[in-house]
Predict the 3D structure of the following.
Amino acid sequence: MNGAISDILNTTVDMLPATSGLTIKRLKAIGINTWEDLLNYFPFRFEDYSLISKISKIQPGEIVTVQGSIKKAKQEFTRKGWRIQKITIADETGELLLIWYNQPYIMRIFTIGNSVSVAGEVKQYLNTLIIEPKDYEILGLKFTDTLHTGKLVPIYPESRGLSSRTLREKLHIVLNHLSQHDQFVNTVFEWLPEKIRVYNQLTDEFSAYQQIHSPKSKKQIEQAKNRLGFDELFLTQLSGAIIKKQWKKETVTHGFTISPDFMAKISHFQSSLPFILTNAQKKVIEEIVRDLQKTTPMNRFLQGDVGSGKTIVAAVAAYVAYLNGYQTLVMAPTEILASQHYATLNNLFRNLAVKIALQTGAVKSIKTKTTSEKFDIIIGTHALITKKLQFPKIGLVVIDEQHRFGVAQRAALKQKGLNPHLLTMTATPIPRTVMLTLHNELDLSVLDEMPKDRIPVKTFFTPPYKRIAAYEWIKTKITREKDQVFIICPLIEESEVETMQTVKAAKKEYQHLQNNIFSKFNIALLHGKLKAKEKNQIMADFKAKKYDILVSTSVVEVGIDVPNATIMLIEGAERFGLAQLHQLRGRVGRGQKQSYCLLFTSSNQNSNYKRLEYFAKIKTGFLLAEYDLKIRGPGQIFGYRQHGYDDLKIAQMSDLTLIQKTKNAVHFLLKNFSLESVPKVQTKLKKFTITQVARD
Ligand code: ADP
Ligand code: MG
């Protein structure tokens, strides 16, 4: 094979013609290093500028592309200091005024005599029709092919100064270059075996890339998504199947046995708990205990709704490790949660000799001088395994509120010479079918039952005029019943991480509540920009009832357990996904008292009302996830992104048909081919696995 040809996709973006150093830097900053990376940077929507209209035919409200030559260009200044750019273009049917606001560079680009193509909505302005262009291109002296107008135009997730325009231009260069040489297309593309491609009626790979980045019709977009989504789901499942095979061959570094004596101790531990385990908890504990006795490492994924009692299940598993003389590592996503687990486990094991360490940025039980061997359970954040600490006696690793399913963690542990049992836990309601097919390397356990004494949280969707009454009611609840309250501030920006603006808004709300509403009560403020130590202190004080009210950003979302808190007030509820709201609501209703969740919104949108009203009625995460799946359409399972479920770039987690198809295809491949006989599949898989692990 010609080396140069097969390597074409590895060409770095430095080699893109007519591309500035800054653009190259920006491309690399979002992980686009090669032409292949560029091809795999997919648009998230399309703007339809395909209606090309003569000037005399345009209608108000239409989204159109108009082409003509520039007749006049002038800039006007308003009294308020605005600058308005007015460009007049003409075709053979008439003249049209284009207007921009405060875009002085337009004057440099739109010079008289040039031909242009502009796209946007037609509007009425002082009795004439105008366009405020959304996109444009200069066609020079003659009309040529367009890239940003006159067609279905891809819109890319723009980040770090990279515009969709730039991406379109660079992709155009790459696709153009490739399509001019048959040998590139034939040698480099189509990694799927022909039989699988034909059987599943898939567009060929190169056409799919052309169609997603430069579609000629909506149908082409669908075909391309179907093909590229197939690839993604196929690779996810193939890598899962291969990982499973490898894992099956491995043996644990530290094997456990469960003698009758141990069995008695485990039963005794369970009966010493302040509550009776649910049947679901008992069933899952049995599944885990069975796994722990095997010589192959456990890879169990435990799903259970908020408050279903996952922690105790993990504690029993850790106890088994302890009885066998081995350590357990417990990893949580945040330091707050780690210190909470520390408190909970200390409490659960208070009558036993189990020694527990907390190892976070703020607290370090294991000092450089003490060895980790003094402890039986070591709790920290996910950073624990990347730390220099050596844990020679780790038999079990528990990963709480984590979605990455342990592939990267297992790899990291193996580098330390460890191959322990692994238990990953989450409350995020990924539908079972999706879970089983997409991550078939894992064994799945589900806590599908809530503890019996739980009183369901009453949820109220509170209109603005009831705000004052709601505050008064909260005051009575605190004074009479010593209840505690969470007040969650809205996300100010659409961002997955907490921004400064969100924090600022929370501070303001806190001051307002402290000064004007709840001045007689003790209020604390919690947000993500506080130091870990401060956060822990605030949570501990809240738990110890030193505060009546905790005003917080959504950092309290995952896992916090304060049984005496009975009221969860959520501001700007419409800004949260249902899964996130469900997590927030799960912060109350954890004790013996009736709890309440109050939803406040600042939006008048009907669809939001419907969504929130549904939320008020429905108590289980799985139903809410299904609802999100239905109303928000495939792909947009709201709240998944916030929880990191964005592994899929183009396929949709809710596309069960495609998941099933790819599952069958993987099965077919593994049955009929050896991987060695399909080198293109091997190469593709290798690249896929590398990017997956890199994203962990
Ligand atoms: P999650 O599954 O959300 O992690 P936790 O493990 O934090 O839930 O448990 C939530 C609360 O329920 C804790 O206060 C815990 O002590 C309590 N709990 C757990 N199991 C039971 C049970 N079987 N009966 C009553 N309460 C339970
Ligand atoms: Mg939990």
Observations:
- The radius of gyration is 29 Å.
- The longest strand covers residues 63-77.
